[in-house]
Amino acid sequence: MEDFKSIISKNKGKVSLKDFKDYKVIGKGNDGSVFQLTPDRCVKVFGNEETKKLEMHAMQKGQSSSIIPRLYEHGPNYIVMEYVKGISLPQYLKKEKQLPEEIVEKILALFVEMKRIGFERIDTEVRHILFNEAMEIKVIDLKRAFGSVRTTPTKFIKGIKKKGYGNEFMYHVKNLNPPLYKAWKDSID
Ligand SMILES: Nc1ncnc2c1ncn2[C@@H]1O[C@H](COP(=O)(O)OP(=O)(O)O)[C@@H](O)[C@H]1O
Ligand SMILES: [Mg+2]
After folding, report:
1. Does residue 90's CB lie within 6 angstroms of at least one atom of ligand 1?
2. Does 91 lie in the same domain as 34?
3. What CATH number has the domain bearing residue 9?
4. Ligand 2 ion: residues within 5 Å (CB)
5. Which numbered ligand comes closest to the C-alpha of 125?
6. Which numbered ligand comes closest to the C-alpha of 84?
7. What is the pLDDT of residues 27-81, one digit of tens each?
8. CB of 71 closer than 6 A to ligand 1?
9. Number of compact structural domains in the chain
């Protein structure tokens, strides 16, 4: 298997997907393919260099926070970051078949932390919330963190509702943070 150093030294620091044919694929989305480099590092290879810049900007801003994967190195079309070993929120729900209060507490703290970092869009897809082995919450795929202002996580609420956990989520929000519940409840109708 060709090592990462020699891959990036080939073409002005740019990588191409075929360089990683022997690497384990962690995930694929619309904008990137993520490959495992080492037990605790992965590389996200972007189709579009502008998207890489957007994600890079948000990751740099987020390095003061434990909710953002560590950033190790980057090039024109890739970012090497911490591989979050654990499970995604959808995988958690599939396995546990419930959304307990302690998880909702972590999700609310995640949104508070995104705001503290200075993100403009305080929202995420359900699938972009990950938990590491210590059950610490992380958020990935940050390309939309800046560029539009959103204070209510409408995408998240829609997504959690679609998975059948909307009522459970809002029940815990009501207990944990009644004013927030009031502000959010209209967005689940
Ligand atoms: N740092 C990471 N640790 C663990 N898994 C990751 C990490 N980054 C991405 N993934 C996995 O790869 C998938 C695709 O990455 P994502 O950043 O969402 O790409 P895209 O921008 O194309 O949507 C994610 O949904 C997730 O399953
Ligand atoms: Mg994605």
Report:
1. no
2. no
3. 3.30.200.20
4. 29, 141
5. 2
6. 1
7. 999 999 999 999 999 999 999 999 999 999 999 999 999 999 999 999 999 999 9
8. no
9. 2
Are both 139 and 73 inside the same structural domain? no
pLDDT of residue 11: 86
Q: 114 with 172, same domain?
A: yes
71-120 residue pLDDT tens: 999 999 999 999 999 999 999 999 999 999 999 999 999 999 999 999 99
Assigned token pair, 21: 């044919």
Residues 117, 77, single domain; the answer is no
